[in-house]
Amino acid sequence: MRTRPATRALQYAAVVVYLIFLGFPLLWLISSSLKSPQEFASITPSLLPKHANLSNYTDALNEQGLVRGLGNSLQISIYSTILVLIVALPVSYALARFRSRLRPLTNGWILVSQVFPVILIVIPLFMILRPLHLTNTIPGVVIVYMVWSLPFALWMLQGYVAAVPRELEEAAAVDGATRLRTIVSIVMPLLRPGLIATAMFTFISAWNEFFFALVLLQDPELKTLPLVLARFVGAEGQVQFGPLAAASVLATVPSLVFFAFLQRRLTSGLLSGAVKG
Amino acid sequence: MMASITAAAKAKNSGKPNNSGRPKQNREAILLFLPALLPVLILSVYPLIRGIALGFTDARAGLNVETSFIGFENFSKLLHNNLFWDSFRIGVIWTLSVTILQFVAALGLALLLNADLKFRGVARTLALIPWAMPPVVVAIMWRLLLHPTNGPVNEILLKLHLTDQPINFLGDFSTALPAVIVVGIWVGMPMTTVTLLAGLQSIDRSLYEAAAVDGASAWSQFWNITLPQLRTVIVAITSLDMIWNFNSFGLVYVLTAGGPGGKTMLPMLFAYNEAFRYGNFGMAAAMGDVMVVIIILFLFFYLRNRLRSEA
Lengths: 277, 311
Hints:
The complex is a heterodimer.
Chain A: H1 5-33, H2 37-41, H3 55-62, H4 64-97, H5 102-115, H6 118-129, H7 138-163, H8 166-174, H9 179-190, H10 192-208, H11 211-216, H12 225-234, H13 241-276
Chain B: H1 2-14, H2 22-54, H3 73-79, H4 82-114, H5 120-127, H6 129-132, H7 135-145, H8 152-159, H9 176-201, H10 205-213, H11 218-246, H12 250-255, H13 267-276, H14 281-310
């Protein structure tokens, strides 16, 4: 089928409009992070900074609260990712390989957990964690994130386990390897791309999360980066746009870097599964 | 690339679990489940059940307050509260506008990207950035963009003489909700596009070839092949989008905190304020219960109708 030139031109115009709608905000954020305070004060803002400089980034990094928030977010995201992997690996193996009564229950729970408004969970969580002195602590948030991102992690990992050829495990069993031995030395190595993808996904969820952190962390010393950024905006009037934009860019970098990897890992993992399936 | 994902998903489903040696397998499965079972029961299942029950009590924030069962009192208070009805109405407007508008835009875009155009790769990669960004950062970015004095959006509107005074998009009663909806579309549309694109690429080409031989117009091919073939994907992504949008919190909390004058007070923001600003845990949980009922009713009717018409 030939497309007429006029139609083609319209198609390109539509794609360009989309790219502007999508790209302009991002471009503006990055450009804002490179502008000087004088340029912000000027009445006619320009798309590109006239004298691009990194002073907003150094200002942001000199801001005590931001650096602490960065550290807290990093800690919480890393711990909850490790915890999720430890818990999710055996479960997703069982989900993919065994027909147990727990399987429909788990899959049901995975679906239900995506549907409920978090307000219903967060109040009782708050009431459970407070007497245990776990509200306002990093371990408290870490276990909440673990449970909160587990459903999706299970969903992802299950697929990767199912893509590992069963014949390999059967061969190992014939050679006399125990189930545990088979999992550790046959399944785990083949599962590495899947584990990496799941880890990145969990890390990003924890890194971006706002609601649980808002409710559970009141101590300014413990606030995560999203909370620190949100408070920055709340105190408008004296808000400094440049450092705020710089801090926002910094907060996005880990998600984007991980995502760039994740995308390739995801497709390659699924591709190899398709070839062997 | 996307087609092989669908292929992989199909291959995955065909790998049926082994059914031999049932009793031993059950014991092994339970052992493997154990590390997850305890945390999930304590921190997810139990809180959820308790959260649902909390809506029928007078629980309040603060230590050691005895709570008692009060039946439907919270619910009748909610029904007599104008702010509840406002937030409910705003929630429905927000959910429907964001979901429908982003779906229509995403479908158009997915069709474009499925055609043989340049920039396709760029558009696809860019498409997932909003999804990976922290919602708080998205909100901050749009506050910079829509700022009444320093924002480029007003600058552009002034230059084009579309307005003679800067508009305080997020601070004005009449523009706040539409502005927030635009941001919601910005965040959600790319992900919907990519999902629809994957669906489009799994449609069998030969269907179109046969239709073209029969002389079917592009328009008729769209209605008779593309849409019916996409139905399952459309049902899945729009119902998920609706649920996510109905339950969303962080984005609007940072954009407007429900203001100005409650014009963007989504149900979750209302519930959050009840619980953590006014300490009415029972009332907030009741609000959560109402939201759950709405979501379940929606899922029931929407999925039943959609899937029935597919069969």
